[in-house]
TrEMBL record:
This is Stress-response A/B barrel domain-containing protein. It comes from Microbacterium endophyticum. It holds the Pfam family Dabb. Coiled coil: none annotated. SUPFAM superfamilies: Dimeric alpha+beta barrel. InterPro entries: Dabb, Dimeric_a/b-barrel. Residues 3-92 form the Stress-response A/B barrel domain.
Length: 95
C-alpha cells in the first residue's frame, strides 16, 4: 500500500536565504530516487510563525520508504537540514 511521508521543517530565523535555497535544491533532488511516486518541496505560504519548508511525498510502499530513508542521498539531505531547521514528521499508510 502507498506510504505517505510529510515533513514540516521549521527554518531557524538566522538562516540566510541563499543557504535555504541550496537546501531546497538538495531536497528537490531527492524526487528521482527509487520508490518515490510523488514528491513536492515548497515554502509554506503562511509565514506568521516563521519560514516553513513543506515536504509532501508518497512512496510505493513502506519498504520503499525505509530504503529511501536509509540511503546516502537522504542521509546527506537530513544532515544539511539539521543545521538550518528543526522538523516534525507525519507518516501514514494510504488504504
Amino acid at each position: 500500500m502507498p506510504y505517505r511521508h510529510i515533513v514540516l521543517f521549521d527554518v531557524y530565523k538566522d538562516v540566510p536565504e541563499e543557504r535555504l535555497a541550496h537546501a531546497l535544491h538538495t531536497l528537490r533532488g531527492l524526487a528521482v530516487l527509487p520508490g518515490v511516486s510523488s514528491w513536492r518541496i515548497e515554502m509554506s505560504l503562511d509565514e506568521r510563525k516563521g519560514r516553513v519548508v513543506v515536504e509532501d511525498s508518497t512512496f510505493v510502499d513502506q519498504e520503499s520508504f525505509i530504503a529511501f530513508r536509509d540511503c546516502a542521498e537522504h542521509r546527506a539531505a537530513a544532515e544539511e537540514m539539521s543545521h538550518i531547521a528543526d522538523w516534525r514528521i507525519g507518516d501514514y499508510v494510504i488504504e
